[in-house]
Design goal:
Length: about 160
C-alpha cells in the first residue's frame, strides 16, 4: 500500500524568500496555478482516492485545483499545516535544514507529534499536500523515526511515494 506526499506550488512568500506562517498565509502565484494544473494531470493515472491538505492557502489552493481534475474526497486540516516558526516568520528564509532540525522559538517536535496524532489515518492511495518542513517531519512521524533526523527536500509541486 502506498500514499503520496507533495509540497505546495510557488507562493508569493517563496518568491520573496521569506518565512511564512499562520499570520502570513500567502496565496500561490499565477505560475503556481499552472504548476498545480500540470501536477493534477501527472498524478491522475495513480488512482488517488483522497486528498488531505494543509489548511494554509498555498496548499489548500493546490488541493482544490488538483481535486477539480481528480474529483475525489478532499479533507483540509489544520493538523497538517506548516510548522510554526515563531520569531522567524516574516524574516529572510534561512537554510531549510535550520527550520527542519531546530526547535528554538518554534513549534517543538513534541507539539508536532501531538498535532499529527489528531489527523485521520492515512490510507492506500491518499495524496497529502503540505509544506517543505511539516511534510518531511510528518513522514518521520509516520515511519516512527526520530523527528528532525531524516531531512527530505521537497521542491514546489514535487511529490514522493511512500509505503504504508
Amino acid at each position: 500500500m502506498v500514499y503520496y506526499c507533495a509540497r505546495h506550488p510557488v507562493s508569493f512568500s517563496n518568491l520573496a524568500g521569506i518565512v511564512s506562517g499562520p499570520d502570513m498565509d500567502p496565496e500561490i502565484t499565477p505560475q503556481g496555478i499552472v504548476d498545480s494544473e500540470e501536477f493534477a494531470l501527472r498524478v491522475k493515472p495513480f488512482g488517488i482516492r483522497r486528498i488531505i491538505s494543509s489548511n494554509f492557502r498555498r496548499a489548500s489552493q493546490m488541493a482544490e485545483i488538483v481535486n477539480d481534475v481528480l474529483g475525489v474526497e478532499l479533507i483540509v486540516l489544520e493538523e497538517y499545516q506548516e510548522r510554526y516558526f515563531g520569531i522567524r516568520i516574516g524574516k529572510p528564509l534561512p537554510d531549510l535544514r535550520v527550520l527542519y532540525e531546530s526547535n528554538e522559538g518554534m513549534e517543538t517536535f513534541e507539539q508536532l507529534e501531538k498535532r499529527f496524532s489528531r489527523m485521520p489515518a492515512i490510507m492506500d492511495d491518499d495524496l497529502l499536500i503540505g509544506h517543505s518542513i511539516a511534510t518531511p517531519l510528518f513522514i518521520d512521524y509516520r515511519s516512527k523515526k526520530p523527528m528532525g533526523k531524516n531531512f527530505i527536500r521537497f521542491g514546489n509541486c514535487e511529490y514522493r511515494v511512500f509505503e504504508l
